[in-house]
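Hi there,

I know you've been waiting on this one. I reran it after we fixed the sequence typo, so this is the corrected version. Both the input and the resulting structure follow.
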Amino acid sequence: MFETLSYMMLQQYCWIVVSLLGGAMTLLIFVQGGQILVYTVGKTQEECKLIVNSLGRKWALSFAGFAAFAVMLFASFPLFCATSFGGARLLWLLISLCFLFQTALFEMRWMPAIFPVKKVYEFLLFFTGITGMILLGTGLGMFFNGAMFSLNDVNITRWETPYRGIEAILNPHNLLLGVTVFFLSRVLALLYFINCINNEQIITRSKIRLFRNAITFSICFFGFIAWLLMKDGFYYDPSAEEQLVSMQAHKYLHNLLAMPAVLALLLAGITLVFAGIIRTMINSRFKKGIWYTGAGAVMSVMALLLTAGFNNTSYYPSLYDIQDSLTIENSSSGYFMLAAMSYISLTIPIIALVTFWLYQKKKKSQEKSCKKN
C-alpha cells in the first residue's frame, strides 16, 4: 500500500503521524498537572488519597506518549533527532529529569522519613512540575522560533552555544508557550478530577481552580497564537535545486490560509478545548469536559505542528545559519524506512483502543470495589 506512494507523500504522511503523536503527548501531561495539584485540591489525607488513587500509575502514560513521539521522530526524521536531542541535550535531559523526579516524589508521598516537612515535599513536587512543563513548552517552541545549530557538508550537527538548548527559554515566544503548556496541564488535570472523583468537596475546589487556571491559560494561549500569526517564518522554494531558505512575513498565517483543512482542525480543536471548560463550569451535572478539552488539545497541537512543517516551511529553523534549517524533505529517512514506519503507524489506533478498553475495565473494577467497601 505505502510502496505506491511517492517519497514526498511518505514524508508528509510521517509528519502527519508525528503531529498526531505530539498532540497525544500534550493531552497526557494531565498526569503531571494532577501531581502538582494533589495538595492544592485535596485538603485532608482522605481527599489526597482519592486524588492519588485516581491518578494511580498513569504517569506511565505521559512517558509512553513522549517515547512514542520521540521514536517516530527518530525513525522518520533522524537529522532532527541528531540536531535537537543531540545538540540541545541539556534541555531534553532537564525535562526528563523533572518528569522522573516528580514521579519519584509522587511514589514516595507516604514516606515521611524521607521528607519529614510536608511543605518541602509540596514545594519539590510543584517545582519539578512547573519546570518540566515550561521547559517542554520551550522545546516545542523551537519548532517555530528556531535554535542555534549548524550543519556541515555531511550533516554533522554543531550546537553553537555552550548552553545546549537552555538558551531557548530566553526567547519570550518560547517562554509564553511553556507557560501555556503548564496551565494547560493544570486545566486538563482539574477536568480529569471532576470526571473521575466522586467527592463533592474535591469537585467544588476543582471547579474554582478550573476557572482561575482557564483564564490564565486562555490569555497565554491566544497570546501565543496571535504572536505566531504575526511573526515571520522560514520559507523554502521546493522547485529550486538548492532549496534556499528565506524569511517570509506572516508565514504561519499564510500556511493556515493555504491549508483550509489544517485551519479547520485548529479552529475545531480550540472550540472543543473551551467548550469542555465552559460547559463544566456552567453545568453542575456535566463531568465529561476532559473528553472535549482533551480531544481539542490533541487537534490544536496537531494543527500547529502541521503548520510548522507543511507548505514549504522549515519546521526546525537554524538561527545561526538559516540555510542549515531543517525541513521535512532534507531531514527525513530513506524511502524504505519511511514506508516501514508508515505501516507501523497503523497500529496506533489499535493500541489506543486497547488502552482505552483496559482503562474502562479497570475503572469499573475500582467502582465495584468502592461499593463493596
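Quick highlight: The mean pLDDT is 89.

Best,
R. S.
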